[in-house]
Write a structure and sequence with these properties.
Elements lengths: L10 H15 L16 H11 L4 H14 L3 H5 L3 H8 L6 H17 L7 H5 L6 H12 L8 H10 L10 H11 L5 H14 L39 E11 L3 E6 L10 E2 L20 E2 L4 E4 L4 E11 L10 E4 L10 H19 L1
Parallel strand pairs: 1-6
Antiparallel strand pairs: 2-3, 2-7, 4-6, 5-6
Helix pairs in contact: 1-11, 2-3, 2-8, 8-11, 9-10, 9-11
Length: about 350
């Protein structure tokens, strides 16, 4: 076959060599069946794939274990309380995934009797299931031939064919190349073998080409710098925003938490009351009081911008009720509130300053 005028590849040989390597070296992961075994439970495949988006295997492992212990089936997850699930998701980031997780689980139970559709087309019709997730679940859970391209596979294929078009414009060529080497049989094993190769050997930096099972067929190996692939477009400067957050602590040791709007960044999560996030946010506190400002803003980087959150604290009487919907949460149990990372850091900063004041 030929990709973008590049060298001819033997797709059958590539697939065979990679699967032979996978049979011996496959990573043992809690959501994965052994090489050549029957397909894994679609629920576990789908859950792991959603969790793994924009997140590492190491980070996902503990979350996957907790989720499957608490919600061991699609029916159990569909019946979960929204707030409980959002709290359990805290720390994994990209919180729209958690909202889509619930919507998808409920759709599978409501519309499909608790059984996932077994085709890419059927899976794509579910809430929050995109092209990659549909292909991954179809291949890994149901053995369907599907072209599964995540960041690891993208890197492997770009190097294998030395595709020098910068990303993201290179993606159609990368997908075409991945399609050309995807076998009809053992589609799930092949997809996971490609993921493993990218995660353990064909890494972003310092790829271990000497032990790669596809070395003989790799065009990038014959270049001076295989790590130069895939070619990435110049990064755009990430804009910076500012914000204000307010720690309102009651006399009995409870802090006021609000629920962020369902739509938007950190949607549906518990959080401290905060301003808008912009170049010049509204710094007006929720009410007049004796406010104290932490010396250092809390820094956080989102996908599309960086943020400096200035945190202000105050204490109120037992009968004080801030305006708007919210709840009083025990400060000693703040770690159990499921705060997203930004607000968890803000809470840690407040408590650290309180401890410092107490020592003096």
């Amino acid at each position: 076959m030929r990709v973008e005028g590049d060298m001819v590849k033997d797709g059958v040989k590539i697939a065979a060599d990679l699967l032979a390597h996978y049979d011996v070296h496959a990573r043992r992961l809690p959501w994965r069946a052994l090489p050549g075994a029957n397909a894994t439970d679609p629920y576990r495949v789908w859950l792991s794939e959603v969790m793994l988006q924009q997140t590492t295997v190491a980070a996902v492992g503990p979350y996957f274990a907790k989720f499957t212990a608490r919600w061991p089936s699609i029916e159990a997850l569909a019946a979960a309380d929204d707030a409980d699930l959002m709290a359990a998701w805290a720390g994994l980031g990209y919180y729209a995934r958690a909202r889509n997780l619930l919507a998808c689980a409920r759709a599978v139970v409501r519309d499909h009797g608790g059984h996932f559709p077994d085709t890419e087309e059927g899976l794509r019709a579910l809430p929050g299931v995109g092209a990659y997730t549909a292909a991954a679940v179809a291949a890994i859970a149901f053995g369907r031939r599907a072209v599964v391209v995540d960041a690891n596979v993208e890197r492997v294929v770009a190097r294998l064919f030395a595709i020098d078009t910068p990303l993201p414009a290179a993606r159609p060529a990368i997908r075409a190349a991945a399609d050309a080497i995807t076998p009809d049989a053992r589609a799930g094993d092949f997809a996971q073998a490609m993921m493993d190769l990218g995660a353990t050997i064909c890494t972003s930096r310092n790829p271990a080409c000497g032990i790669c099972p596809l070395r003989d067929d790799c065009a990038a190996v014959r270049t001076a710098d295989p790590a130069a692939y895939p070619v990435k477009a110049a990064k755009k400067t990430r804009p910076h925003r500012n914000g204000h957050g307010w720690w309102i602590e009651r006399a009995d040791g409870h802090v006021w938490l609000v629920r962020r709007p369902d739509k938007g960044l950190l949607g549906g999560m518990r959080a401290l009351p905060s301003s808008d996030w912009s170049a010049e946010p509204d710094a007006a506190p929720p009410f007049a009081g004796d406010w104290r400002t932490l010396a250092d803003p809390v820094a956080h980087v989102f996908t599309h911008f960086s943020l400096a959150l200035t945190v202000h604290t105050t204490h109120v009487e037992q009968d004080h009720v801030p305006s708007g919907a919210g709840e009083w949460w025990p400060v000693e149990r703040i770690a159990d509130a499921g705060l997203p990372t930004l607000f968890a850091r803000a809470a840690q900063a407040v408590l650290k300053e309180k401890d410092a004041d107490a020592r003096h």
